[in-house]
Amino acid sequence: MNQLDEKIKNSFPDESVYKIPKRYSVFSGRNLPSFIKDWLIRKYTDEKGDLDTHGLLLFLDEHIAHKNSDIKNRIRTHSEEITILTRFIVETDILKNVLKFSIPDLGIKNNEGKIPDYVAKKHKELKDGEIWGVIRLVYIPPEGKNRGAIELIDFKPFKPYDVNIDYFRSVRKDFSLEEWVNLLIRSMEYNANGFENLTQKLLFISRLLVFVEPNLNIIELAPKGTGKSYVFGNISKYGWLISGGTVTRAKLFYDVSRKAAGIISHYDFVSMDEIETIKFADENELQGALKNYLENGVFTVANYRGTSSSGLMLLGNIVLSSTMQPIHTKYFSGLPPFFQSSALLDRFHGFIEGWRLQRVHEDLKVNGYTLNVEYFSEILHSLRETSNYSYIVGELLQIPQKADTRDTTAIKKLSSAYLKLLFPHVEKPSDISREDFYNFCLKPALEKRGIIRKQISLIDSEFSEDLPSIEVKNSKYFN
Fold first, then answer.
1. How many CB atoms lie within 10 A of CB 467?
2. Helix, strand or coil for residue 157?
3. Angle (CA) 429 433 439, round 5°
4. Which end of the chain is more exposed for a tag (fewer CB within 10 A), N or C?
C-alpha cells in the first residue's frame, strides 16, 4: 500500500474497500451497478482481506435477480417465498387503485407485480420510480375475479450506510488538495495515476458536479471511450440514465393518463446519453416544458404543477480532427434539432470539454483503497442538501449590478458544486483562501459557463459571448 492507501483506510475504516480489478471478475455476466458490487465485495471479505468467492457466488445465485434466474419460476410454480436484493420499478395505477411493480431482470411485468396497501403504507420509500432494495415475494393464485399476481410483502431499502456528513467534511482537512482529488477519482472507480496532470483530473471530476448541486444542468461532448456512460450509470442509485429511445413529456415530467410524476421528480439528476440518438415526441410541447423547468425547477402539465431539484446532464459524442480537437467550431451542431434552440441551450449552466480527457485504458482501472461506491453515492446525495456552500459562494463573489442573471446563476451554482467537491470542510468564507477559491471554484465555473456563452453566440447573433466580470471580493475574508 502507498501513503494514500493508508490514509484512506485509516480515515474511512468502515467506508473504504480495497479494490483489485481481478476480484470483480466474479460478477462477469451480471449487470450490476458498482454500488452493489462494492457492498457485496465488502460483505464477503474477511478481516485478513481474503474474499469468500464461493459464498459470494452462492449469494448471487440465491438472492440477486438476473436474466437467467429461476426465481420467478420458484415463486410461481413451487410457491416459494423468495427474498432478493434487486432493482424494481414502482408504478401507481390510479384507475385500478393499485400500486404495481416490475422487475425487468426477472421478467416480472408491471401487470404481474402488486404491492399490498399495508406494505405501501408501512414503507413511504415505495414511490413511483426505480428503487433498489431487499424485497420478499410470494405468489397469490387467482381467486374469483382476481387474477394471479406476485406480491411484494416486505421491503427494506438498500441503504447500508448511515452517512455522517460532518465526519466526511472534517476528514478533508487531513488530505492535501491533490490527495483529495485522487480520492474522488478512485471513488469514481478510476486510477488517479493514469491521468496526465492535475488539470485533467479536475476536468474528470467535473462529471460529479450534477451529483452534488441541485438543479444544475451541464452538457458534455466527448469522443467514445472516455467513460461518460459508466460514471452516470454506475456510481449512484440517485441518478437516471436514458440511453436511446424516445423521450416524452409524460415520461420526463408528468403522465396525465396515469396521474403519475415522471422521472425528473424522482432522481437527483437525469442523464441523456448518446443524445444524438434520442428522439423526442411532441417536440414543441416538450421543449416548452423543459425550458420552464431548466429555468426554475418548476413544470406544469395540464392541471399539474410539479417541482424538482433534479439536474439534467446531456452526454454526446463529438467528431475530432487528427489533433484531437473538434472539427467544427460550433460544438452544438451535432446535437438533435430539439437542442438547437439558443433559448434552451442558454439554460444550461456549463459545458465539459470531454475531448480533453483520455480514452479509458487498463492504467485507468482503480487498484487500491477507495471509498465504497454506495457510501460515496450517499455522501454526494447528502452534499446536495447542505446549503451553507451557496451562502459562502454568495459572500465571496463580487457581481456587477448589470450582470446577466442566467450567467450569474450558472457561475454561482458551478462554484458551489466545486466547493462541495474539493473543499467540503469549509464552513464559512474565511475557511478558504482567495487563491484556492478563485483557482478551483470560480475559474472553472467561468470557463464552463463561458463555453456555453460562446457556442450560443455562434448560432444566434442576439447573444454575446462575453461574460460579466465576476470576481472574488477583496474583503474581510482574506488577508
1. 19
2. strand
3. 110
4. C
120: containing domain = 71-157
Mean pLDDT of the chain: 91
Q: Which residues does residue 326 pair with via DSSP β-bridges, in sequence order?
A: 320
Partners of residue 401 on adjacent β-strands: none
pTM: 0.87
Q: Does 46 map to a domain? A: no
In angstroms, what CA-CA distances link 315 with 39, 58, 271, 274, 378?
Answer: 28, 37, 7, 6, 23
Q: Per residue in 361-403, pLDDT tens? A: 878 888 899 999 989 999 999 999 988 999 999 999 999 999 9
The CATH number of the domain where 331 resides is what? 3.40.50.300
Query: Exposed, middle or buried by CB within 10 Å (0-12, 13-18, 19+), for 370?
Result: buried
45 part of a folded domain? no
Q: Decide if 371 contacts 175 (C-beta within 8 A).
A: no
Cell digits of residue 177: 488538495
* pLDDT score of 476: 55
Number of domains in the chain: 3
Name the residue type at position 308.
S
Choose the final residue of a domain: 157, 187, 208: 157
Same domain flag for 231 and 133: no
Domain boundary among 338, 357, 376: 357
Q: Do 217 and 342 have their domain in common? A: yes
Residue 468 — left, alpha, or beta (φ > 0 → left; ψ -120 to 50 → alpha)? beta
Per-residue pLDDT of 260-295, as tens digits, reads 889 999 999 999 999 999 999 988 889 999 999 999
Nearest residue to 157 (alpha-carbon basis) of 305, 374, 321, 364: 374
Check which CATH number belongs to the domain holding 107 and give it: 2.40.50
In this structure, is residue 371 part of a structural domain?
A: no
In a domain, 310, yes or no: yes
